[in-house]
Amino acid sequence: MHVIGVDLSGPGNPENTSVGVFRAGKNVLDYLTLIVSATDQVLYEETRTRLSAGDVCVGLDAPLSYGSSGGQRESDASLRRRIVEVGLRPGSVMAPTAPRMAYLTLRGVAVARGLHLLGGPGRVKVVETHPGAAMALGGAPVEAVRGFRDDLRARETLLQWLTDRGVRGIPNHVTYSDHSVAAFAAAWAAWRWTRGESAWRWEAAPPHHPFEFAC
Q1: Which residues sit opposite 128 in a β-bridge?
Q2: Tens digit of each residue's pLDDT (9 = 90 or more) over 53-102
Q3: Tens digit of pLDDT for each residue in 161-179?
Q4: Rounded CA gap, 113 and 188, in Å?
Q5: What is d(CA 171, CA 187) in angstroms, rounded to the nearest whole number?
Q6: In 10 A of CB 31, how many CB atoms?
Q7: Would you call the peptide bond into 207 cis, given omega within 30 degrees of 0 as the criterion?
Q8: Contact call for residues 142 and 168 (beta carbons, < 8 A)
Q9: DSSP H/E element including 15
Q10: Residue 143 to residues 75, 96, 102, 118, 168: CA-CA distances in angstroms?
Q11: Mean per-residue pLDDT for 193-209?
């Protein structure tokens, strides 16, 4: 099975969308490639290519649904409580319809549904995830998680942490952006979900919330 982690970007910043592609082994996740500045079409094409070899799990770092009354979903409130317990800021989990999140939510919903329309010998599984929460709840250094968006050293710390937890082969001679590290973490969270090892999980509730949310 292939596992793809995607850090989607907001409006006007397509260059910030990163896609990390991995192959899942028995107890390891092997790095294959990183795609930066990825459009939705590039993501679909990459996923379709991997489907030719079997099943693909895609972990999307974006809301894949929204609350029927606006504001936060029950899942957002639950995850916020958990991350605060381990030292992350409550604002790390935002409501899908918040001003800074609305476009990302629209894109996430559209991309998830587009992935499900792809054909191939393999089957696509899509899960919503939150890379920062996944790492923090998985035991990563909280200060590194809180600072990796702005701090190169924090990103290096988290890459080593992911390596120690079965993510193999990420080239160590590259300076990675925060979006790339988030894509790698999204793939790790999706892989853990396929193995039933998520630290936190919210079940899907179709039709309004058709995808599971796991960290």
Answers
A1: 60, 213
A2: 999 999 999 999 998 777 899 999 999 999 999 999 999 999 999 988 88
A3: 999 999 999 998 888 999 9
A4: 22
A5: 16
A6: 18
A7: yes
A8: no
A9: none
A10: 24, 25, 28, 39, 23
A11: 96
User: What residues are paired with 4 via a beta bridge?
Assistant: 21, 58
- C-alpha triplet 65, 71, 75: angle, nearest 5°: 55
Neighbours of 19 (CB within 10 A): 25
Two tokens, residue 6? 């995607």
What whole-number distance in Å separates Cα of residue 43 and Cα of residue 126?
13
Instruction: Determine contact, residues 22/32, Cβ cutoff 8 Å.
Output: yes
Neighbouring C-beta atoms of residue 102, cutoff 10 Å = 16
Q: Which of 134, 122, 7, 136 is nearest to 57 (CA)?
A: 122
Tracing tokens 């709840």 back to the chain, one arrives at 137
How many angstroms separate the CA atoms of 98 and 109, rounded?
Answer: 15
The partner residues of 44 in beta bridges, in order of sequence, read: none
Determine the straight-line distance between the first and last CA of the chain, rounded to whole angstroms: 19
Please tell me the distance from the alpha carbon of residue 150 to that of residue 156, in angstroms, as a whole number: 12
Residue 149's SS3 state is: coil
Supply the pTM of this predicted model.
0.95
